[in-house]
Amino acid sequence: MHDLNPLWLNLVVALGIGLLIGAERERSKGSGPDRSPAGIRTFAIAAMLGGVSIMLYEWLLFVVVFGVIVFTATSYYSRSNQDPGLTTEIALVLTVILGSLAISDMALAAALGVMLAILLAAKAPMHGFVKHVITQAELNDLLILAAATLIILPIVPNQFIGPFAAINLRYLWLIVIFVMLIGAISHIALRLLGGRIGLPIVGLISGFISSVATIGSMGARAKAAHELTSAAAAGALLSSLSTIAQLALLLIAIHPATLKPLLWPLIFGAVSIALYGGIITLRSYRNQTTASTSSTNAFSLVSALKFACVIAIVLIAAAGLKVWFGQAGLIMASAVAGLVDVHAAAISVTTLTLTDAISTQQAVIPILVALTVNSVSKSIMAVVSGSRLFAVYVIAGLCIQIAAVWLAWWWF
After folding, report:
1. Which value, in Å, is the radius of gyration of the alpha carbons in the chain?
2. Are 7 and 31 a contacting pair, CB within 8 Å?
3. Is 371 in contact with 271 (CB distance < 8 Å)?
4. 156-159 contacts at long range (C-beta below 8 A, 24 or more positions apart)
5. What is the pLDDT of residue 36?
6. Measured between alpha carbons, how far is 286 from 281 in angstroms, rounded to an integer?
7. Do the beta carbons of residue 334 and residue 366 sit within 8 Å?
8. What residues in the chain have per-residue pLDDT under 50?
9. Do 396 and 233 touch, CB atoms closer than 8 A?
């Protein structure tokens, strides 16, 4: 028995793509004289035509695609008075191309075919979302976020510039994108869950990525809608709980022995900020009026850029301190690093314990100093980004957390 030609499988995949897309079009093409001219059989034949043509001659595929375009254009022109749209016609041309792609890359062709079928089937929810759920301001914000991520980010240079070579533009632009993304997520949570619950949840989750950025985003939210001040402050405070949890996880992953002398300070810090944040959350739940999100933006680009500027200033100051004071003291180095990220400072210090350069007891003070200085950066961000009441809530909570951390270190 002779082996089957391996191209038979490719043709079967091409036929499957045509049948899948055609089945969706068959259900939506209507009936009677106004029905769409292309259904399941047409799409199946079109996919097979693309596969067979590319198997014979490459130039034949161009001829076939051109012919299908002519046929679909003629069909569209004959029904132009009915305003039929171009979705089916464009899908038919793409089906021919996917049929030809199945001959060289079955997996990619099949994946694209499924994606096309999903897009065609999701007409009603997609149209309903764009027309009735999302507002024009939210759509504009979505376009800004997409442009910042897909257009601007790839062309931003990834190199250190500026005073002390401390500024990396790509890093700063990623911070801008992240702040806008947190704002968008919190906006969605605000609409789905309400400010009393949504913002604290977003703050707790976002804090695992960047507590400082979360505070900046929550501050902008509080400034834009004063009735959300308590909820935004709760989200900002709970992001500091995430900072403690992430720090503990990093120590466990790198060198669990380092966590032992830091266990009680981290527990006290976590419990204190969780209790304070819980109190603020309950206060917002009891006193907050219903907030309207229909007229608010998903995020503030100005606030995101302002936050990036503050980070840039902190980076320059940190680099300057390193140049002026050198690496004479581990505590000074940890404090400088903690201005930007407590986790980076903790990783650096914990790495020294792995090589026995310092003991686990000697690593405690530098890590706690980095945590303390990082709280200063958070406090500055709360003042810069949010309202006065928001800053009071956040700074008070951070002071309670740091006091609890050092009290536990002193007591135990």
Report:
1. 29
2. no
3. no
4. none
5. 63
6. 9
7. yes
8. 1-2, 289-295, 327-329
9. no
